[in-house]
Amino acid sequence: MNEVCFTYEGVLSLLLNLDPKKAVGPDAVSPVIMLRCAHVFASYLVILFNKSLREHALPNEWKSANVVPVFKSGKRQNVENYRPVSLLSMPSKIMEHVIYSCIVKHLNGNNYFSSMQHGFRQSFSCTTQLIEFHHVLASNFDRGYQTDVIFVDFYKAFDMVPHSYLLHKLSFLGLDNDVLHWLREYLNDRAQRVVINGKRSSECKVTSGVPQGSVLGPLLFLVFINDITVGIQSHIRLFADDCVIYREIQSLNDSQKLQDDIVRVGLWCETWGMRLNTNKCKAMRVSRKRSTVDFSYKLGSTNLEIVHEFKYLGITFSENLKWTSHVNNVTAKAIRTLLFLFRNIRQATVKAKRDTYVSMVRPILEYACLVWDPHESFLIKKLERVQNIAARLVFNCVGSNVSVSELKERLGWVTLATRRQELRLQMLDSIVNDKTGIVKESYIKSPVFISSRLD
């Protein structure tokens, strides 16, 4: 790995891209001030960053976090219904950006990351992960084969990572010596406090986990979990800590091999100080056969529940690979969101209401639609119905006889089916031209015979 050096130009570029709306961290350094005084800050931060790296030392404020609990849903009295949001030092995150870029460049140059990991990596995404996962399921399904799928759930994965084991793995990456020692200090003696309505709790030490809300945290987790794929004989896919193992099943012997891989994942967790959430780990059989190969998969001494459908990375997969449940889920969510928003912006301008739908409702209907784009007409109509309602709400003409096609034309909206087709073509272009992490040879086959009449 090349030596890391902080430059005025590099730090200035990061400062000028700061979001002034970000909250301040424990050091109370405002991103607004850093942005407005970027040219002055850059000079001093370069000196500070280089000194921190060479001396392997960080200010205590850079290793502390203000944790703000954000309510999700359910009973407000239940602490499990709150999502902890960590606010960190802004100068520390600027320094982390530079170190992150250098480490990623080094690891990518050495093909370190497993090709099965699509989380927090350039050219990879939830969509690429889902495309690859669904491709195997659909291919086996079309050939009449059964695929058994194990959905693995880690217990608080990002918070459980033991620092000593993480540092052990980092020591084998060929990192610059200063960077390795700096990372050791970065993880050592971290602390956090809860902040509610301006009131702070007493500080407590953080003895495990990667720093939440940090720049380096996701990368450190990828390094830690990367070798979980070693020795696995079935298909295994990761999106950060979202893990799925699956295998084509033609006999009980195939099922036993998949069970052996479940055991291997369990042993990896025991070896590296991680835990699996047994109650949330599920199994599913994907098949068009009436008679399937039945096998009771176990995680430790617990039998895994066989489910008929499962929500993986936001997409509801069913055992028959139909998308009825998923479309029902997304249309219901989109309608709820649409009606809630439009109740509050009824008097807004047409442009404001149009933009609200486009930015806050349509993405619900199109998330990862490259994977689940339905061919059944009743599902296509059900999705389009949401957009039809939105068009009428934009013009405040619900219940009128005005043609919805005319309304959508005035708004410049094509059908959602047309948009899904365009998105699929864009992804095809990205795969063909190597703009994604998907290996095109797995999806695009060379023709066996080309007629001379086409020359």
Automatic annotation (TrEMBL):
InterPro entries found in the cross-reference section: DNA/RNA_pol_sf (IPR043502), RT_dom (IPR000477)
- PROSITE patterns in the record, alphabetically? RT_POL
Alphabetized CDD domains for the sequence? RT_nLTR_like
The domain of life is Eukaryota
Which positions fall inside the Reverse transcriptase domain? 51-317
* A Pfam family assignment: RVT_1
Q: Name one GO biological process term.
A: DNA biosynthetic process
Q: What is this protein called?
A: Reverse transcriptase domain-containing protein
- Its source organism is Ornithodoros erraticus
Q: What is the lineage of its organism?
A: Eukaryota, Metazoa, Ecdysozoa, Arthropoda, Chelicerata
